[in-house]
Design brief:
Layout lengths: L4 H6 L4 H9 L3 H7 L11 H5 L5 H10 L8 H20 L19 E2 H5 L5 H13 L4 H14 L5 H10 L5 H12 L11 H8 L27 E2 L21 E4 L15 E6 L1 H6 L4 H11 L5 E5 L2 H7 L5 E4 L10 E3 L14 H10 L4
Parallel strand pairs: 3-4, 3-6, 4-5, 6-7
Antiparallel strand pairs: 1-2
The structure holds flavin-adenine dinucleotide (FAD).
Flavin-adenine dinucleotide (FAD) binds next to helix 4, helix 6, helix 9 and helix 11.
Length: 371
């Protein structure tokens, strides 16, 4: 088992270290290698999801490093997936919490297979990825797809409980990327379920396992019996432990910036004298629970924001307890109940609104790329 320092080494929280991480991305090697477990992926999602940096910021950094758009297109396209799902969430709101295009079928359980939650399904690459999720708070994209496919399309768990389980443990927990990707794999937000067999897993994870329940040809998937190991299911009790509520000190003569789970941007209004509050709303974490590791991660990230104070409570409680002058916050679908001045988030391209497919969205984005 890995220990706590692993997360800190892999995902440092000091802003300088995060900026340094961006300088080491290899967006050219990314294209051909990204699907392999040791591929040249960026590991930036925990920072993008937490609003420390934006997709636009990352893209501009690459332009400044002198990369031409053509050779780094695959990487840019993946960044665009993030913005696509975010726009989708803005447009559809809470509707993303239910099956979107098609009802997932068949579903035999609204719970999660116990062996998946235990990381003990007998497919070594997957079991290892689950252990890594628990120890580091990160999983490679291809392994997320394998896992979702096993949960939804082999064990016939409805996507939502396993999605909440994965979200709970991810440092990059982002409900749009999460719920919509799970639905995409399960065929609830796509026209086809995603399957991968053992040969595919062996290839991308460098394993050589045979005789597993996935060691079948692709035609066998539609009628595959649920493997014995995945039959037992369980409900998970996912709760968030928030820091204790403490008094904060407000300078009533100054405006206030509200930070939250999705906005920990250290350069937002950096030069201004402002009250800065990290708002942790119990109602948010009741609906979208996260692990202690994720809470510790955001508390550490918040240290990049000078003089930030933590308020554990609801937005309305904050404004009724303290005399807040002008309030600023960044747009996000979960902030609709905030009152004050809403500022836009950064987006990579000026393409907004709902697109039924990523490729329709991407086609428009591509037009803005200057070659
Ligand atoms: C079932 C499932 C659940 C997922 N849950 C989440 C989640 O909760 N939070 C989350 O941030 N991502 C989620 N993803 C998307 C993707 O797996 C991660 O963003 C990616 O693996 C992060 O690693 P990276 O930063 O090294 O990505 P890279 O491959 O280096 O990609 C660069 C950046 O592009 C964006 N990106 C890449 N792939 C995707 C994608 N498929 N969808 C959206 N954005 C993408 C991310 O911002 C990422 O940081 C999920 C994918 C699947 C299949």
């Amino acid at each position: 088992m890995h220990s706590e320092p692993d997360t800190k080494a892999q995902f440092p929280t000091a802003f300088d270290a995060i900026l340094e991480k961006i300088t080491t991305i290899d967006p050219i090697a990314y294209g051909p290698s990204r699907n392999y477990v040791d591929g040249a992926v960026s590991y930036l999602s925990p920072y993008i999801s937490r609003g420390v940096i934006s997709t636009k910021f990352v893209y501009h950094q690459l332009m400044e490093r002198g990369f031409h758009p053509g050779p780094i297109m695959k990487f840019t396209q993946e960044l665009a997936w993030r913005d696509y799902w975010q726009q989708f969430w803005i447009a559809k709101g809470d509707a993303i919490n239910q099956d979107l295009k098609h009802k997932q079928a068949p579903v035999i359980s609204m719970e999660i297979s116990s062996a998946l939650a235990a990381g003990n399904i007998g497919i070594t690459a997957i079991d290892l990825a689950i252990q890594q999720l628990y120890t580091t708070g990160y999983i490679h994209n291809h392994l997320r797809m394998y896992l979702a496919s096993i949960a939804c399309n082999i064990a016939h768990n409805h996507w939502k409980t396993p999605a909440q389980w994965m979200y709970y443990h991810l440092l990059d927990a982002d409900w749009a990327s999460n719920a919509l990707s799970w639905q995409w794999v399960a065929g609830a937000n796509s026209n086809k379920k995603y399957y991968a067999n053992q040969e595919n897993i062996n290839n991308f994870c460098y394993s050589n396992q045979t005789n597993t329940f996935l060691d079948v040809s692709y035609d066998a998937f539609e009628n595959l019996q649920i493997p014995e190991v995945l039959i037992d299911t369980q409900i998970l009790s996912l709760t968030t432990s928030l820091p204790e509520q403490k008094e904060i000190v407000i300078n009533a003569a100054l405006p206030t910036c509200i930070y939250n789970f999705y906005n920990l941007d250290p350069i937002w209004k950096k030069e201004e004298s402002i009250n800065r509050i990290l708002l942790l709303e119990p109602s948010h974490f009741k609906q979208y629970p996260v692990s202690k590791k994720t809470i510790d991660f955001i508390l550490d990230l918040s240290k990049n924001i000078p003089n930030i104070q933590i308020f554990v409570g609801e937005f309305d409680e904050l404004i009724s307890s303290y005399k807040l002058n002008t309030i600023y916050y960044k747009e996000h679908p979960l902030n609709n109940h905030y009152k004050g001045i809403e500022e836009p988030r950064d987006w990579m391209f000026d393409v907004k609104g709902y697109y039924p497919s990523f490729f329709a969205f991407w086609k428009k984005c591509k037009k803005e790329i200057i070659f």
